[in-house]
Amino acid sequence: MRLIFLGAPGAGKGTQGEALAKAQNIPHISTGDILRQAVAEGTPLGLLAKSYMDEGELVPDSLIMGLIEGRLEQADAQKGWILDGFPRNLDQAQALNELLQKMKQNYDRVVYFMVSQKILIDRMLERGRKDDNEATVRRRLEVYRERTAPLIQFYRDIDSLEVIDGNADVATVSNSLRQLLEQWLGQN
What we know:
CATH class: Alpha Beta
Number of domains: 1
Low-confidence stretches: none
Number of strands: 5
CATH architecture: 3-Layer(aba) Sandwich
Shape: globular
């Protein structure tokens, strides 16, 4: 099982990805986690990424793709994976498609967790992270809409998109995801 999870910050991708990955015994791959690990380990790509992060800049797509490729080549990712919040833009989606083709892998489905803006804001403010004030949260959602939301149409156009109502509580969303995957697996 190889899945891509899309959704705004606070949509529940990480929570659902971690639970499903554990149940399926496959890795839950988050670019944020990969970046933090590469920086902590002092890998060449991690040190390069840190130089951008220290300047408050976005890590370039080419560097992110190198980290993703390295992660997907690891032994635990050979039988499947869940990409959480990656790709983040159309260029990354196209680069990911090329990378997977080169690696002779493919993703099975893209799951979009659709959540209303009010619920997203409430969830992010409830997390209580020091950088999660209302202005910052609204800006993060604006950036998401500008850069990531076009991916929804991209994956819909190639008939890879499944939509989950992510407005509900964790258990209800988990149940919806499980039903969707059972239905999808039953068709294949």
